[in-house]
Amino acid sequence: MKSIAILLATDQKTDSVAGFPDDSVRFIDLLRLASDAWKFTVIAMHDNDIPASVLEHDGVIITGSSCSVNAQYPWLERLFTVIREAHTQQTPLFGCCFGHQAIAKALGGEVAANPFGWSAGTEVTEIVRSESWLPAPGSSIRLYSAHREQVVQLPCGARVVGTNARCPIAAMAIGKNIFTTQYHPEMSEDFITALVKSMQGELGTGVVAARKSIESGSDMTVFSNCLDAFFRYAGNTANPSGETENRTRFAEHMTVKAGRLAMEFFRDVSQLKIESKGVQDLVSNADRDVETLIRREINESFPDDGIIGEEYATQPGTSGFDWVIDPIDGTSNFVRGIPAWSVSIACVQNRRPVIGSLLDPVNNEHFLCQRDSGAFLNGKAIQVGASMELSHGLMGVGTSHDCETNPVPTMIRLLMERDSMFVRSGSGALGLAYVSCGRYLGYIEGNMGSWDCLAGILLAEEAGAIAHEFDCQSMLENGGKVVVATPGVFHDLRAISRAVLET
């Protein structure tokens, strides 16, 4: 039987609902809905200095609390130290509400007042990232809520796995061993009802909406299964894949090698042989030669892998891994000597992107990521910006001639109505990479080929961006819509997308 330590952050002596069992009992009951395979150790942080042995458990839960992570408590700095040690040692760690915020702050994130004031009642979290322990992206989970602070800046290396408009970072994950939610999966309906009643003075007229929302209930059983699956997944030492690691190192090397060849052509663009594949869709001998180089080396290193590229026919594979390559993204710029183009290589495993490698050879900028491992620029960890307003940064906008009608003028008009500045660089892959390092707040395009976007989408997600859900198989076969943004503006950008691209 595996053990979980529950770090109890609530002081029941001052809690307005002290008549109910404490959070440790609620979490034990929650996990037992899914399995009887766990045993529990409860540590009350108000009375205990959190022993180092807590990290010897198979998992750790940090509960909610009426305390603020931004306050000064004798035990809080010790908790932050334990969180950092758990992260370093890869101890499975889950936090809700206060626990979610404490994990974010301990690892370099920021927690601030909720701009909407108190959140109380039932809130819906939209799942936006494919994770082994969560329902599919596009689905949702209802949980009870009681907070007036929330995470506004992710720790570097964190990714958003759940969101809503009132709480953009509603759930996050870090690596393979940390999972958090701003909400309360352990609360029962009678508990949240009593809590909202006790908060009537603070909620004011909002108490009516809070009470009404409780009627929609909570997906406690669904979340119980998710939490059980998370602890089993995070505790599996076989998680790291040597096969993926080997391909990441290959992608890193191959992108640089392809970039060198592309630069040889770029230095003398007057000698290029250029053809037109369609309206504003050019191809040169540089595109073909660079893709040929990449294909040849993939076949030598991973002969059973599939290859999907822009310039040549798809090569099926049998390993479950498929390489998706754009030898030169931004050919229109490239052939005219404009230094805004990139080499993009993605690797998909069983229809899920797992590697993204993107090189801007002109500026010697190499973006690299492996799924669940963060994003890097020239070896340095990167993350998206923290802006909550479209008017506070640049938005990348792409143009596709595959759309029946041109949506770009309407996109630009709607962005300008929100005082947003927009950029059309000619390389969508590079635009997505710019989201990952905070240069753009987001990127939107009506239709992109898989070779243009898969590496960039994964880069942005690994850096903390949210991507509109898409079916990877459909993207590989036909391309698709791309909407990617920092959490604070994702919902606004998606609303623009829906107004323009879904009408």
Structure in words:
The protein is an alpha/beta fold. Helices cover 34% and strands 28% of the residues. It has helices at residues 23-32, 76-89, 98-106, 189-198, 200-203, 206-214, 220-234, 242-266, 285-301, 331-334, 408-417, 428-436, 450-462, 472-478, 487-501; strands at 2-8, 38-44, 59-62, 93-96, 110-113, 119-127, 140-147, 149-153, 158-164, 167-174, 178-181, 274-278, 281-284, 306-309, 321-329, 342-349, 353-360, 365-370, 375-377, 380-382, 394-397, 421-423, 440-448, 466-467, 480-485. Strands 2-1-3-4-11-10-9-6-7 form a nine-stranded mixed sheet, sandwiched between helices. Strands 14-15-16-17-18-19-20 form a seven-stranded mixed sheet, sandwiched between helices. Helix 2 (76-89) crosses helix 3 and helix 8 (242-266) runs antiparallel to helix 9. The longest helix has 25 residues, at 242-266. The mean pLDDT is 91.
